[in-house]
Specification:
By secondary structure, this protein is of the alpha/beta class. A six-stranded parallel sheet has the order 1-4-3-2-5-6, with helices on both faces. A three-stranded antiparallel sheet has the order 7-8-9, covered by helices on one side. The radius of gyration is 19 Å and the shape is globular. The chain starts with a strand and ends with a strand. The mean pLDDT is 96. It binds adenosine monophosphate. Adenosine monophosphate (AMP) binds next to helix 2 and strand 5.
Length: 279
């Protein structure tokens, strides 16, 4: 079942909610790949009904060119979902989602002042607005997000906490290509040569992890940044080692009680790639 209107999907979901059926939700921007499908499969295994949304959210793009070039193919997405047996797909238009000016802002604290927050001003406010609205529409019991977008995952957790949204957030491991490149809708925009080079980003994260037992965080930053800067054609935006929960940069491994995460972002041939690894 494919829905384009908020009223229609809500009318469809209401009997399930009244019947105490468990709804799982997977928000996406479409152009689906195995990373997305893994979230769908997990949701299907853990809920009575799974809803997937496809919406390229304009207000989370700080770069108009990136929004314009974002890959889209809804009919291909729908075919992939049908093969999986995913029950319900929500594909709203921008007018349907944002009929009036968006005025709400969220207190995301330090989470939007580091890493992606610095390089994509306003991005996480846009994410918070759309995910909050989608949660209100779908009213899921559980919602599935990838660790691929690690900072986004922490933002969603904070959103749920500050808005007291009754949903359980389920984090799913990053799905990678055989050579280590994290799957992303944007990968199709990589040229042949860039596609060959892209796994070096993953290898740099692995190098960071290998350094942990013998090297302090600052030294790891220096060495891994050098390595990333040496990747041909890669323009590094940031490589950071942060507390896995607060995402504050750390100076000592003992500073973070819930572990550390290494996060990287940069451009390869005009395509923005991000990746991360828990250390
Ligand atoms: P997107 O369509 O890129 O906004 O992603 C929708 C959801 O899929 C988000 O929760 C992402 O974190 C997740 N996702 C995207 N790529 C991957 C991947 N390679 N592995 C796991 N989850 C992913």
């Amino acid at each position: 079942m494919v829905f384009e209107r908020i009223g229609d999907i809500q009318a469809f979901l209401t009997p399930y909610l009244e019947d105490d059926k468990k709804i799982g939700f997977v928000p996406t921007m479409g152009f689906l790949h195995e990373g997305h499908l893994r979230l769908v499969k997990r949701s299907m295994a853990e809920n009575d009904l799974t809803v997937l949304s496809i919406f390229v959210n304009p207000i989370q793009f700080n770069n108009p060119e990136d929004l314009k070039k974002y890959p889209r193919d809804v009919s291909r997405d729908l075919e992939m979902l049908q093969q999986l047996g995913c029950d319900v797909v929500f594909v709203p238009s921008t007018e349907e989602m944002y009929p009036e000016n968006i005025v709400k802002t969220y207190d995301l604290g330090r989470l939007e002042e580091v890493m992606e927050g610095v390089f994509r001003p306003g991005h996480f406010q846009g994410v918070a607005v759309v995910v909050h609205k989608l949660f209100e529409i779908v009213a899921p019991h559980q919602a599935y997000f990838g660790q691929k977008d690690y900072q986004q995952l922490q933002v969603i957790r904070r959103l749920v906490e500050i808005e007291s949204i009754p949903v359980r957030i389920v984090a799913c491991e990053t799905v990678r290509e055989a050579d280590g490149l994290a799957m992303s809708s944007r990968n199709v925009r990589l040229g042949e040569e860039e596609r060959q080079i892209a796994p070096d980003i993953y290898l740099a994260l692995k190098y960071a992890k290998d350094l942990v037992p013998t090297t302090n965080p600052q030294e790891v930053r220096f060495r891994v940044r050098d390595r990333l800067n040496a990747i041909q054609g890669f323009q590094l935006e940031y490589f950071e080692i942060a507390d896995a929960r607060t995402l504050a940069p750390i100076l000592s491994w003992s500073d973070c009680k819930e572990g550390a995460v290494a996060c990287v972002a940069g451009y390869l041939g005009g395509v923005r790639l991000i990746d991360n690894m828990l250390l």
